[in-house]
Amino acid sequence: KPSYPQDKIATNDGGEITLTFFKHASLSIEVDGRYIYVDPVDSYADYARLPKADVVLVTHSHYDHFDRAAIDKLSTRETIVVCDKVSAEAFDFDCVVMTPGATANPIDGVAVEAVPAYNISEGHLDFHPKSREDCGYVVTVGGSRIYIAGDTENNEDMKSVKSIDVAFLPVNQPYTMTVEQAVDAVKAIKPSVFYPYHYGEVEEKTDIDRLVRELDGVTEVRVRPME
Question: What is the pLDDT of residue 213?
């Protein structure tokens, strides 16, 4: 099978999570031989040759997050798809439809909580309007909480997320957060580990070095190939 960068993280109950980084907003979480894929997109990884999904999480319906072809390659009859309400309309089978504030337990030992994801800056509101109810997710496995923010700015709803062990926050303009907004969000959420993600695919280059510098002493920042 193809290989991609990975990190192993000890869970709070003494187990281990393997994070696999594909590209942009596409990643996976493996725990105890079970695979959770987040926002799989066909052009970001060779999903047909990767382990099948127990759970697929879709944050919202934009093309760089939601790709039915990738989901089909990862799915078996047992795969549970957890998605926002707009993406749900594209499926011809039942998925677990999430709106901000909803919770679900798609499989034993995995809890998912939907967090609001939306823009707040003037001129950017239409990219991810609050009314569409896009989602970020807090995934709890092994007693550890992993926050995958989806496409959002540093609104008060997402900044109120607490007790986060690992956070993935998007840092690209004009669609998601500036470096300043990401720093503000990380200081509010206080994750043990912060992975900037979704920091490419636009003309304006994200100053990742500055992001790391400004969070020195705040949290552990890990930069992986998630442009």
Answer: 96
